[in-house]
Amino acid sequence: MSTPSAASTSRWRALTQHHLFWPVAVLVALLLVNVPFTPDFFAIRMTDGHLYGSLVSIVLFGSPLILVAVGMTLVIATGGIDLSVGAVVAITGALTCSYISDQADQNALAGVFLAMGIGLVAAVLCGLWNGFLVARMGIQPIIATLIIMVAGRGVAQLITDGQIITINSEPYKLIGGGYWLTLPFSIFVVAAVVAVTVALTRKTALGLLVESVGGNAEASRLVGIRSRRIKIMVYMFCALCAGIAGLMISSNTSAADGNNAGLWIELDAILAVVIGGTSLLGGRFSIGGTVIGALVIQTLTTTIYTIGVPTQTNLVFKAAVVIVVCLLQSPKFRAKVFGAKGRGKPAAPAEPATPADAAPKMEVSR
Question: How is 104-168 classified by DSSP, letter by letter?
C-alpha cells in the first residue's frame, strides 16, 4: 500500500510530465517577474466602459501572434513550415488599407467589408501558391515559402508605393483597436478562430488526417488519404490566419506599412508552436499549447520592456528564455539536471526478435 507522500509524489510527477506543464509554469513565472517592477501589474480597471490592464494588453497585442501561430501549428504538424506569413500580413494590410483610402466614405460598411474580403482572398491565394509548390511540385517547404517571404514584402511595398497608407475608418478600427462587451474586439476574433480550429481538428477526423500526413505522408497516401490535398488546405488556412492578423495589425494602427507590418512574426510563431509542445518533425500537435506559447512570447516581450532591458539586447534576452523553456520541456535534460533518470522501475529486457520481426522493412518508392 502506497503512503500519502508516495501518492503525492506520483501525482506531481504525472503533472510535470504533462506537455503543457512547463509552458504554463514559464508563463506564470514571467507574469510574476513583472510584479516587483509594476506592483499593479495584475490590476484590471474599468475606464469608459472598457477593461484596461497589463493582462488585457498582453492578450490584445498577442492576438495577431496567436492567430499566425495557430495556422503555423497545422503546417508544422504536416511536417512543413511557412516562412511567408509575415509577408502575407503585410500584403493583406496593404491591400485592405489601400482600397479603403480610395473610398469617398471610409466609414461605409460595404466598402470596408469589400476591402477586407480583397485582402483575405489575396492571403488565401498566397497560401494556395505555397501549398501547390510544396504538395504538387515537391519543393521543400522552407524554400517554397521563402519565395513569398522575400517577394511578398516587395509586393506590399508596390501596393503602397513605398509609403505608409493611413486611413480614418471607425468600422475598420474595431477589428484591432475597438472594444466590444468591455473587452478588445480582437480577443473575440481570436477566440472564434481558435474554437473553430479546435472543433475541426479534435471533433472531426481532420486532426487525425493532419497528424497522419505529418507522420508519414507517403504511407497516408497509400492507404487512401489525400495527403497532397491536406497539405494545400493547411497552407491556405495558415495564410488565412496570417491575413486576419494583418487586418488586426493595420486596423490597430489605422495604417498599412508594407515594410514593417508583420516583420519577423514568422519566427515568433514558430517559437510559440515549439514552446507549445508541437514537434517540428510533424505528427501530433497541440492548439492549446500553441496559444500558451504565443502568450509566453508576448509576455516575454512585455517583461523585457517592463524590467528595462536595453533595446539592443532584447532579442538575446528573448532567445535565452526560449532556450530555457525548450530545455525544460526536454525529458532527457530534466532527467540529467533533476536526477529523474533511473527512479522508476527498471526497464524490462527486450525480447529476442522473431523471424517476422527481424525481417527488413519494405520501402515504397514514388
Answer: S-TT-HHHHHHHHHHHHHHHHHHHHHHHIIIIIS---HHHHHHHHHHHHHHHHHHHTTTS-EE--
